[in-house]
Design a protein that fits this description.
alpha/beta; Spore Coat Polysaccharide Biosynthesis Protein SpsA, Chain A; eleven-stranded mixed beta sheet; two-stranded antiparallel sheet
Length: 293
């Protein structure tokens, strides 16, 4: 069975200042999503599901979706504030999305096979997709995460949030600690008064799951709403949700390492650096100049 790719593309992009999901970074106008789907298809993924917001549906389909609809199966699901468990409601003044756990839940009922979940604005590299696709085919029901080295994921133009991973001796994830306001500092970083070496393995939201994750996420998200649902800025992130599932013994998550180099866009100033990184990969022959020619 071919795995599915779930692309989390509903983010507001407040730090970026626009719809970074559809901004070009490739030499022929390709977006980061183009490269992710190109890599996923080469790795054996057979379907893509986009999680978007209803208000960006038209431009997203026009710029992104139509490129792929003749190449593989494409579906859309919508992350909306009021898509909540029975009995829950949106608190007054809430405009912020509920976070990546909520985004993942939007695909419940649409995905029935092992799947990868990725951010729309992160360039993970071809090797990452091959490593995860191979694991999803033989993972025996366990989940997985592709880990990246922290220093390779920082922005030169401001702070970022990252999930710092703790693993056991067998390479399974023990916990993910979500740190915000991480800033580059020499070869390392600082975050919330904590010094980081830069060698830490971090989650960039490149996960491998089976459909058994959906009831687990529903329970976790319902508990999150009970505790934090009245806070207008609270978000439920996949790393913290997975950490809770690990802590209660419900899942095992294998941490996979990729030889690829991560590229990502958090701020407008990051986009030229990503475009230059893509250009080098094209020059090296990793990608054609026209991706979909």
């Amino acid at each position: 069975m071919q795995p599915t790719l779930l692309v989390l593309a509903a983010g507001v992009g407040s730090r970026y200042g626009g719809l970074k999901q559809i901004d070009p970074v490739g030499p022929s106008g390709e977006t980061i999503i183009d490269y992710s789907i190109y890599d996923a298809q080469r790795a054996g993924f057979g379907k893509v599901v986009f999680v978007i917001r209803r208000e960006i549906e038209a431009p997203f389909r026009e710029v992104i979706g139509r490129r792929f609809e003749e190449r593989l199966a494409v579906e859309y699901v919508f992350q909306e504030l009021d898509k909540l468990p029975a009995g829950a409601s949106v608190p007054p003044g809430r405009t912020k999305p509920w976070g990546t756990t909520h985004a993942l839940l939007m695909a419940d009922g649409v995905i029935h096979e092992p799947f990868a979940a990725i951010n729309a604005d992160d360039f993970y590299g071809s090797d990452s997709f091959h490593v995860l696709a191979d694991y999803l085919r033989i993972g025996a029901g366990n989940y997985a995460m592709v880990g990246f080295i922290l220093r390779n994921t920082l922005s030169e133009h401001g702070s970022v949030s990252r999930g710092v991973c703790e693993c056991d001796a067998e390479g399974y994830l023990l916990a993910v600690t979500e740190l915000t306001k991480i800033e580059k500092d020499g070869t390392g970083a600082v975050a919330e008064g904590r010094r980081l070496s830069g060698d830490e393995i971090v989650s960039m939201n490149f996960w491998g799951f089976t459909p058994t994750v959906f009831p687990q996420l529903h329970r976790n998200f319902a508990a999150f709403l009970q505790q934090y649902g009245r806070d207008p800025k609270s978000e439920c992130f996949i790393p913290s949700t997975v950490s809770a599932l690990i802590a209660t013994g419900q899942v095992r998550v294998r941490v996979l390492r990729s030889r690829g180099h991560w590229l990502g866009v958090t701020y407008q100033e990051d986009r030229p650096l990503v475009a230059e990184g893509v250009r080098r990969l094209v020059s090296r022959g990793d990608y054609p100049t026209r991706l979909w020619a």
